[in-house]
């Protein structure tokens, strides 16, 4: 068995962003030369997430609008003592915080509409995403 570990870095312009990262992940898989395996993509910060869904701008704004409706960003939260990011922590859990995908024949084995997104919910600071591949 072989493995490869890399880190993607982000420092978003806005507090909340959805960033398409499929191509970066495909590049890491190609570099790894692993043909059959599993890839874990884990945002290493507790106010961010990685999701797999449709790359359609209306849907991405629907995600944001739904999260804002369920967990308003500027409401009063117990966590927000010296911090203001309780909603971002909760959004990460609601949307699912990390993904594991398959590598088949040296390629990310995505469904027809599946794309990978980095979701930033408390941005404007440096963040990292762990990408770990195991396989052969
Ligand atoms: Zn916090």
Descriptive key words:
36% strand, elongated, Jelly Rolls, five-stranded antiparallel sheet, alpha+beta, binds zinc ion
How would you summarize the topology of this molecule?
Elements: E1 2-10, E2 17-20, H1 22-32, E3 37-43, E4 48-53, H2 57-70, H3 86-95, E5 99-104, E6 107-108, E7 115-120, E8 127-135
Antiparallel strand pairs: 1-8, 2-7, 3-5, 3-8, 4-7, 5-6
Bound molecules: zinc ion (ZN).
Zinc ion (ZN) binds next to loops.
Named CATH architecture:
Sandwich
Query: What strand line-up does the widest sheet have?
Result: 1-8-3-5-6
For the record, what CATH class applies?
Mainly Beta
Assembly state of the chains shown: single chain
Please state the CA-atom Rg, rounded to the nearest Å. Answer: 16 Å
Number of strands: 8
Cα end-to-end separation: 5 Å
What would you call the shape? elongated
How does the helix and strand content classify structurally? alpha+beta
Q: What portion of residues belong to β-strands?
A: 35-45%
Number of helices: 3
CATH homologous superfamily placement: YjbQ-like
* Count of domains: 1
Overall pLDDT, averaged?
97
Instruction: Give me the strand/helix succession.
Output: EEHEEHHEEEE
Largest sheet: 5 strands, antiparallel
**Bound ligand species:** zinc ion
Low-confidence stretches: none
**Helical percent range?**
25-40%
């Amino acid at each position: 068995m072989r493995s490869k570990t890399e880190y993607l870095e982000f420092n978003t312009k806005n507090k909340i962003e959805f960033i398409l990262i499929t191509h970066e992940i495909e590049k890491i898989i190609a570099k790894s030369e692993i043909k059959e395996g599993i890839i874990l993509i884990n945002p290493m910060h507790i106010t961010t997430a990685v999701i797999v869904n449709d790359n359609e701008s209306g849907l991405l704004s629907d995600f944001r609008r739904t999260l804002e409706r369920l967990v308003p960003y500027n409401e009063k939260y117990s966590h927000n003592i010296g911090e203001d990011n309780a909603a971002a922590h909760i959004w990460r859990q609601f949307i699912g915080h990390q993904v594991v995908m398959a590598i088949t024949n040296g390629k990310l084995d995505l469904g027809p509409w599946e794309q990978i997104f980095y979701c930033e919910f408390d941005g404007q600071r440096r963040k990292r995403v762990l990408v770990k591949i195991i396989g052969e």
